[in-house]
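Step 1: inspect the first sequence and its tokens.
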Amino acid sequence: MNGRVLHVVGTRPNFVKAAPVVAALRASGHDQVLVHTGQHYDERMSHIFFRELGLPAPDTDLGVGSGSHARQTADLLVALEGELLARAPALVVVYGDVNSTLAAALVAAKLGIPVAHVEAGLRSFDMAMPEEVNRRLVDQLAELLFVTSPEAVGHLAREGVDPGRVHFVGNPMIDTLLTHLEHFDPAAARAAHALPERYGVVTLHRPANVDDPEAAAAAARALTEAAGHLDLAVPLHPRGREALRRAGLADAPGIHLLDPLGYVEFMGLVRGAAAVITDSGGVQEETTVLGVPCLTLRTTTERPVTVTHGTNRLVRHGELVPALRKVLDGQPAADPEGPPLWDGKAGPRIARVLTEWLECHDHRVAGAP
């Protein structure tokens, strides 16, 4: 099979999205390289995901680590340029909307290497979100754009993206969820963390909730009040750990602070939860498929399909407790059909498009040795 495919991943959501694409391409005999930027580097947020998801060990781990957006992105640009020049891929595949995604797309575009963007076209229309900046720029650079929901096609059309480059393939994150569903054990996860039979799960990491001390304090107050109605398991992302602890979250009755969890254990907790409180895009999607009520502490979402076809509801801090009480009185109804093409076959669809594209294009890398 001609044409090397180089995947760039850097954070735990990237790993979950990449796993079915890598597996489908492997089944077709493609030459692949997996580059881990090290944007998420903690064992519980990185290497455990490779083991649990069946991803091959990265061919390269750049070990970039954390830092400000500018410093981290600059380090990624330098490290990825050397990697792409050395590997000379025919195509670079990027996932999601993190700094690793943007840096890889920019480096590849400057070197004349085509880019495929998995999870293209999502829009929150909130430019204060770093992820919104990243996803908009990556979509302008990409040669192939793989979208997870119908509204994303419309967003790209309005931005002038050639429709011939856009492919509605479904959601590879849901491929991973359905593949591992039988391993999500709520009883075992609950017992491991001494949780009562009825509990909720919380994940917060967005700047709007944890970076500003006033916002973190508001989030901590809302969660403290919510914990009076439902015990809450809170696996703390390193980004928000200290901010929420300083805001007093660790001292609240009913709050169970946990270290970051591996994919299978975390999804076991989510599967058994009475409700999930989050600001994560991926968790909004996963709860939609699992039928678990989701309260998203944001004013916008780039995944409106989780509201129209799922169990998701957007809430502000002051709205959290009333919304939670409604959930506990009776779960919101989800569309029994679920979002279109969230059927566990997105990875093979993406692999077919990539295979056809590679067969039709000359593979020369600008600047390659």
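Step 2: inspect the second sequence and its tokens, then contrast the two.
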Amino acid sequence: MMRRRALPLLLGVGMAATAAHAAPPAAAPAIPVGSFNDGVNHWRSGHADGYARLQPQQYRQIADNLLLLQRRSGGWPVNQDPLRVLDAAARAAALVSQDEPGGSFDNRTTYTQVDYLAEAFARSGDTRYRDAALRGLDFILDQQIERCGGWPHSVPARTDYHDRITFADDVTSGVLATLRQVEDAPRFAFVDAARRTRVATAVQRGDACLLRLQVRQHGQPTLWAGQYDATTLQPAPGRKFELAALVTDESVGVVRYLMSIPDPSPQTVQAIEGALAWFQANALHGLRLQTFDAPAEQFAHHRSTVDRRLLADPAAPLLWGRFHDLADNSVVLANRQGDRLQTYEQVGRERRTGYHWYGTWPQALLDRDAPAWRARLGRPAP
């Protein structure tokens, strides 16, 4: 018995000795999955925690999930977790949902899946990933809104705001950033000439749309609204508590996108500087947003064990409202019935803890990105 066990042991010693002289090849780094976080968080809020998930390094399995979740239209449904391990029932449900029409750009959907699949194809050579990315790219190009080169929330529209030109959740700016990657990034080398022509046209029209829709006050460019009516091109509401207003968070994303343009036009530079000036002029001083423990409460869309309040604090970092008035720049707050509220205390706990009404979104843009952008263009600080 002892001699029968010795052979594997000696082989193991020999293999270890060999390994000491030849280090194993390094594992390929994971394809980043952070772009899916918004959809993942929404998925988790509606499902029990603790389900099995893939590791980011398992990019082939994640890409296979994306293939399964993609609709035949080329788009993807919103609020999925592509890292979850799909059992037989989940796979069967995904196959059925492939026949549903359209897809969504909400919560950073579809264009992020296309980008991921392009990288998965570049690494693996699996033509299924290439073909799915091309179908997704065709869907993106087909859904550009004719009136003014932006993109809708979701197709087909199932609410009164789904077909509006959408900046909320980085819909239009996120799509445009991805299309610029299609033009320049090596992982998109497989895109054919005809599609590249369509992409170039879409980017040109989308960039013009950004400049056209920037809200002006007294002739000066400011920020962008969360949504615009696709016919009148006027700022429009989203969900009932999202009134027509300047939106700070996503305007940061628009400015970052415009800053990424290598050789910006004078109109683009003016748009960027106008937004930066607005952020500087309309920061809220002396207020701190405090989150504190509170008795657990279950709401229709989330469970809260905290609450939030605004406190006076001269040492607090700068804050901005998520929404500011289109005319006077005051902070816009609302309830689920669509009533504008005057104070944060009037916002019910469900919306105080289930939505971000205040934040520091523009701070890094002002402190880091703007100086770097001006330095690149050789522009002096204002």
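Step 3: confirm your contrast with the notes below.
The radius of gyration is 24 Å. Residues 1-26 have pLDDT under 50 and may be disordered.
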